[in-house]
Description:
The protein is of the alpha+beta class and 364 residues long. Helix content is 61%, strand content 18%.
Amino acid sequence: MRLSYSLSKYLFKTFLKWSLVTSLVFTAIYILFDVIELLRRVSSLDSIPNFFILKMVMYRFPMFFQEILPFILFFASIITFWQLNRNSEILSIRAAGVSIWQILLPLVSGTLLLGLVDLLIVNSFSSVLMGKYYNLERTYIYKSSAPFSISKSGLWLRETIEGKQIIMNAKRYDDKNEVFHKFTAYVFDKNDQFLERFGSQKAILRDQKLHLKKGWHIENGGFPESFKDKVMPTGFSKKNIKASFSDPKTLNFYTLRSYANLMETSGLSSTPYYMQWHILLSRCFWLSIMVLLAATFSLSQTRNGKGSIMIISGVAFTFLLYFLKDVTFSLGGAGKFPPFLAAWVPVIVTAFFAATRLLYSEDG
């Protein structure tokens, strides 16, 4: 027997209702803890703009919500199936000849559509807001500016040394040996007036000094002068250069791969950006799979009388899954595991487990 449109609509509306309730609960918890944490961080600051904490919370919330959305849908599914079982609605639907797969179809289809909207539309807005969050954090909490940018012309660095503004450009950066290739530095005074320019085939970063090899130097109004070796002081180190890269979360799904290509061209690690691209894509499907996972722990409770134990087991399994996700994502972002596998292993494990249990318990 086919599932009627009215029944599909009823099942989806029930699931949607509990999804909204669960989302509100998680949102309230997030706002409470995030406000407390922000109050702690800004308590020692001299002055902050009006509505600073509110802006920080709201800028970060969309990205946070996207990350926990699979688990919100899991708990919403658990509650939905528990309610339907408690009212014997699942039993009545099954007695009419409707299979468990037909019951799950409206929910799985709806969450798959939600995943596509999250990936193709919502992510573009949340990444922009996350960028604003990091800008506010950097400006008012860390009191620093973004010293790094990257484009087709290479990577650009900016710093202030002894009252002078220095803008540096390099075509490539050898992260292992800490060497900038085809290096150029522009020096300006505090009034942004040009003072001098340096250029060299390579610049070696050692002990917060740049050792320029086989280059030239020109002062404002002067003529170029060549040199074999010249030392420039700098505040940069290998560690803070890495820390100044754009966070993958500030880039949307459409631009992550192109930015990763730019990083590769400049000799920098592109792994975190490919990792984020796969995370976003896999999450699109993980939403639907979490519905299947919830079904394995909550649909059969009326038959065996162990509903509470099964639901608790489901929650415990979900926390274990969340831990697995964090481990694989961390390994993938650090380059210890291929990004594709790191992002898709939790999804594949969840799908295999859910499908196997449903086939075994419902279809024999």
